[in-house]
Amino acid sequence: MPLQAFLSRTHIAYFTMEIAIRPEIHSYSGGLGILAGDTARSCADLDLPIVFVSLVSRAGYFRQEIDADGRQAEVPDWWEVDRWCSPLNAMIAVEIEGRQVWVRPWLYLQTGIRGNQIPILLLDTDLDQNSKEDRALTDYLYGGDDTYRLKQEIILGIGGVRLLRALGFDIHTHHLNEGHAAFLTLELLNRYRVAPEDLAPGEELYDIPEVRSQCVFTSHTPVEAGHDRFAYDLVERSLPAFVDPPTLKKLAGADSLNMTRLALNLSDYVNGVAERHAETTERMFPGYRIHAVTNGVHLGTWAHPEFAALYDAQFPHWRHEPEVLVRALQLPEDAIAECHLAAKADLVQLVQAATGAALDPEAMTVCFARRMTGYKRPLLLFDELDRLKAIAGKYPMQVVIAGKAHPRDDEGKEAIRRLYALAAELRGQITCVFLPGYDMALAATLVAGADVWLNTPLPPLEASGTSGMKAALNGVLNCSVLDGWWIEACIDGVTGWSIGDSPGDAAADGQATSELYDKLEFTILPLFYTDRAAWRAMMKQSIANVASYFNTHRMMRRYATEAYLR
């Protein structure tokens, strides 16, 4: 379908620094990009009038390589842009550091379950018109220093808005997926700037209410370091006199340009990605009204083929109406068990091929897969090795771990190195494997093949989390600290288990470790090995109570009615 077909109907633009379109397209790093990709897939399924804007990220985030001692190395993860996307015959320029940086979009068409399509534009500066330095600006996702990052965010926000106009889109609503795209508000400010000669006494230089009426902002992080800040001298060098400096400081912060604060001040609708996260964001930024739209996952993407076939047979419209999965309680337990065994067999095969380790398909398998960083507490399960060994002596268990550490996150890299050492130390007592190269394809096997999906963040630093939602769709049971989305989904002993009795519990590592071990030794493992019928009944409860609600179809229907149609 040519782009022209989308122009008259599309009035919403979704801006995101990263997006997981498909495994072969490396324009994502983790949860934020996976969510954006799932959002696009649901928008196509629901035929929403929306266009997505991101960066092409030719070299990806990075390909993770780990040596025998567990040391992570980062290698460029190039992908074939022209294999999956089509170049559009349009270019715009953004002035950065006093020179014109040209930007061209690539087009990917996301097709929905009924054949509907939505456009995804990936912005690219690798053009003959640009200098060697500027050609590399859209190569590395989150690469380089603050200057590189600032230039990327200028290209995404300012360049993205300009390209949409150049292509003929008439956008009424701009959805900022995290603060990376907040510079688009500056482009809109200039569009609605009042000529100095027309200014009335006391009137603002810009029509700020008009800009606000066109912007929706979703914040994703309660971690202070996750909010981009740039020194004003750097901003002035990159975007000299782009907007009135006093106005910019009033909107983005007096001391440095805070992208989150800029987005907050220039968006009429602001939301967090879980109920608890909205509360946390209001405490971080007092005075702002923060709504809550809890994240979801695209069920058609993350259901294992065996589960998808079962759902197709029993609930033919589940891909379009995920709420029908509440009827999963009617599914035969034997059918659930057969689907899970097939998914677990795929995981066993993957681990064997990737590491040479042989998992026992009969043993309870715990998976922990997420970004390797301190607040995720990837080592918590191994805090008291003697007790963990004693538990495994009573009830066999095996652990599969995956995740990337940011190239500059030394603590995360040290956690990976320590996990490799622990796997060697536990050999013969507990099978523990680390799978390198955590990506969309690997995640799909893990979330379906685990028996228990483990999550141990330090509250309240988990904004939402979505991997456990994918696991629940496949009948996998969650065991998690009560933070993010799990506060809303956990019915202890029904949909899974909590670590701690109430939200905010388990903040101390020692307390969390003890509660996790107690739950494993006295509840989870005995149930798995001695009452498989009760375990399968919980698997059905997990599907019915979690998958039927925590999905991107529900999420996007809420955005459409509450954020876009205001």
Tell me what you see in this structure.
With 566 residues, the protein is α/β, with parallel strands linked by helices. It folds into 2 domains: 4-63 and 75-193 and 206-295 and 555-564, Rossmann fold (3-Layer(aba) Sandwich); 304-550, Glycogen Phosphorylase B (Rossmann fold), CATH 3.40.50. Strands 1, 2, 5, 6, 7, 8, 9, 10, 13 and 14 form a 10-stranded mixed β-sheet that branches. The chain has a 6-stranded parallel β-sheet with strand order 17-16-15-18-19-20, with helices on both faces. It has a two-stranded antiparallel ribbon with strand order 3-4. Helix 2 links the parallel strand 1 and strand 2 (50-55). The relative contact order is 0.11.
Rg over C-alpha atoms, rounded to the nearest angstrom: 24 Å
Proportion of residues in β-strands:
15-25%
Number of strands: 20
The name of the CATH superfamily of the largest domain reads Glycogen Phosphorylase B
In total, the number of domains comes to: 2
Number of helices: 22
Termini separation comes to 30 Å
Q: What is the averaged pLDDT score?
A: 95
Instruction: Identify low-pLDDT runs.
Output: none
Any idea of the CATH topology of the largest domain?
A: Rossmann fold
CATH hierarchy: architecture of the largest domain: 3-Layer(aba) Sandwich
Structural class: alpha/beta
The 3D shape can be described as: globular
The major sheet is characterized as: 10 strands, mixed
